[in-house]
Amino acid sequence: MERAKTLRKAQTDAERKLWSRLRANQLGAKFRRQYPLDGYIADFVSVEHRLIVELDGSQHFDQHAYDVKRNQALEALGFRVLRFWNNDALEKTGDVLNAIVAALTDAPPPHPNPLPRLRRGRGSQAVPDSSARRASDESPLRPTASSLGGEGWERGRSAQIASLPANGSRSSEVRDSWSALHLRARLYTLIRAFFAERHVLEVETPMLSEAGNTEPNIESFSTMFSGHADAGARERWLRTSPEFPLKRLLAAGVGDCYELGRVFRNGEAGQRHNPEFTMLEWYRVGIDHRRLMTEASDLVHAALALVGRSAHVVERTYREWFTAELGIDPFCASIEALQAPLAEFRIDAQSLSRDDWLDLLITHHLQPALSRDHVTLIHDFPATQCALAKIRDGDPPVAERFELYLGPYELANGYHELTDAAEQRARFERDNARRRARGQRELPVDERLLAALQDMPPCAGVALGIDRLLMCLAGSDDIREMIAFPFANA
């Protein structure tokens, strides 16, 4: 152990190079460096994915027996161990990273410590790890007959549609997976009927845009247009949400509208995330976030009825949620007070902001405690988490936004929409400043949106993750079970 500590005190060139690619969630997972585990110090650890990455130098040529013993001890803790030579990390970095990404894509073993949610943008995909639930029979993510999918949902399938052989033949196991497609189709039919009854217009907007999403915690895909230069900007960004073009339609006078379509987020793939997923986003003119929150709850209740379920509604302010469950006032508690309930999780505090600690309290304590039979509505967030929402003056000021949870799943994120173009530009600029500080690329802002905001009517908007809702309806804890062809097989 002492020898291992000595070897790990100085960071090697290989460790330095690999850490530059693993840190800050660049592969879609949080890694910790020099992480203590049962008497060992592991080079790089993703606790969420139960994955250890070790780099070996020449000293390992004569300590094979020690390495075998070390691997066995770490695997006994429920971790998978990948080992690479230092030279490979330096000279074949791409191959090493590909191997790590492949391991991250595999379903991780259970673990009680989910990572903080890092995305507060519209329709974020952050889904709490199913293993983060307290040991309770109420967990909606357990593979039991009482899951939200009801008795008809097929659990324990050994094959997915993604397993189709190259020749397209279908085994009986694969045919069992049609249930997810049928459930999705029924949900789409319900959604369209729900909005037709309310005279909300379905629209389509572009998936490619000249502007990117400046939110630092969301990474966009980009592509290059190869046609004539007069056609427009060559670099285009795949949308992470239809929000900006929908607001331009609102400014043009389209009225209440919604879009049900595909969106894209880079750097996220596996059991909890898919780089392309389905988002429902809608806007209602002349109402605030509180009224839209009720409508979003109505839609979720209608979806639950598809599988013979219902849920109680619990509504709280952000402050009430924290004070009632943790005895902490999130608006004025010290950083030390926010950190104290998280001490057991041994979280790396480096570079974490106050909002990060608040999010950690949600993912580690508040979300796991939510009952599976409740729709929980949380509204009026700290002003520092305003995103694209209005800020209401008060003591303290609050962001007029809400989140909707079904059980411990965050399904929807809604705002009383900001219509001040100058303030919106300032927020975009703050986003890019944070990107600059993190060493990320600054992204072009949507000038067409900014020009349209002055004409956008007062309204509220919300985005809801369809794949997450389907997971709840089906009682599944794997997003890949809800998708015909997940990322690895697309």
UniProtKB/TrEMBL annotation:
Coiled coil: none annotated. Keywords: ATP-binding, Ligase, Nucleotide-binding. The keyword DNA repair does not apply. Pfam families: DUF559, tRNA-synt_2. Residues 181-486 form the Aminoacyl-transfer RNA synthetases class-II family profile domain. InterPro entries: Aa-tRNA-synt_II, aa-tRNA-synth_II, aa-tRNA-synth_II/BPL/LPL, DUF559, Endonuclease_DUF559_bact, EpmA, Lys-tRNA-synth_II_C, Restrct_endonuc-II-like. SUPFAM superfamilies: Class II aaRS and biotin synthetases (SSF55681), Restriction endonuclease-like (SSF52980). Residues 131-140 have a biased composition (Basic and acidic residues). Residues 105-156 are annotated as: Disordered. It comes from the Bacteria. PANTHER family: ELONGATION FACTOR P--(R)-BETA-LYSINE LIGASE, LYSYL-TRNA SYNTHETASE. NCBIfam families: genX (TIGR00462), PRK09350.1 (NF006828). This is Aminoacyl-transfer RNA synthetases class-II family profile domain-containing protein.
